[in-house]
């Protein structure tokens, strides 16, 4: 009984065996990729096909993420879906071997010391570095420790982790209500400060003469002699009140803008 060969399906003649069932004509026993004859050569059998050593390696051997060369050894280091030669899995910054060590994947493996000194973010609340052992929350490109004391509402201190976040003037709030209350309070305090500033006369200012509603006197014209000053303290005060006060420009105030809603991310 004739057997069908694995290559063309034609009746076999002189055959090459691969295991107990697969048979080829010598001319059919070639690499699946480059068709190089593999009789008397080293070949690899993968997924029902045979390959020369070169193409089997290119198709099925992993490449080192550091040197981009094929890994032919039986052992390699695998992390984050990539593989390295055992001696190539090192910190990108200081070349410290990281096999069996803690590391941070920041485009490539990085030891904890280099990551904290070069890449760790500053917390917007406390101003301290967010270390590799600390959880981090990010909102609109800024960073906080994810703990309740840092990532919280500016007004009511409610923790914002996993909650809707409103941002106003780079400050975080748990709701629009807190944002508006904070803005209203700041505006009121600014108005009070401005009023006190406007009502206080300047010690260097000169009173401006004006018509008095009580005596019916008109303001002296250019070249006229100024009235004689009063001698008593009370009289000086009454004269200043009658003649007017110089007003300086009030302090500028920050208006309350609208907040942007976002989700606090860790």
- Low-confidence parts: 1-17, 188-219, 228-266
Number of helices: 4
The count of DSSP E runs of length 2 or more, i.e. the number of strands, is 13
Instruction: Give the overall shape, derived from the CA principal axes.
Output: elongated
Largest beta sheet, briefly? Answer: 3 strands, antiparallel
At the fourth level of CATH, the homologous superfamily of one domain is Cysteine Rich Protein
Classify the fold: give the CATH topology of one domain.
Cysteine Rich Protein
CATH architecture of one domain: Ribbon
The average pLDDT value, as a whole number, equals: 70
CA-to-CA gap between the ends? 70 Å
CATH top level of one domain is Mainly Beta
Following the backbone from N to C, one meets helices and strands in this order, namely EEEEHEEEEHEEEEHHE
Helix content: 10-25%
Q: Reading side by side through the largest sheet, how are the strands ordered?
A: 12-11-13
Name the beta content range.
Answer: 15-25%
Radius of gyration: 42 Å
Outline of this structure?
The chain is of the alpha+beta class and 266 residues long. The chain has helices spanning 53-60, 112-118, 176-199, 233-243; strands spanning 16-18, 22-24, 43-46, 49-52, 77-79, 82-84, 103-105, 109-111, 136-139, 142-145, 164-168, 171-173, 260-263.
Q: What can you see in these coordinates?
A:
This protein has helices at about 55-60, 110-120, 175-200, 235-245, and strands at about 15-20, 20-25, 45, 50, 75-80, 80-85, 105, 110, 135-140, 140-145, 165-170, 170-175, 260-265. It is of the alpha+beta class. The chain has a domain at about 15-60: Ribbon (Cysteine Rich Protein), CATH 2.10.110. Mean pLDDT is about 70; it is low at about 1-15, about 190-220 and about 230-265. The chain is built from four helices and 13 strands. Pfam families: LIM.
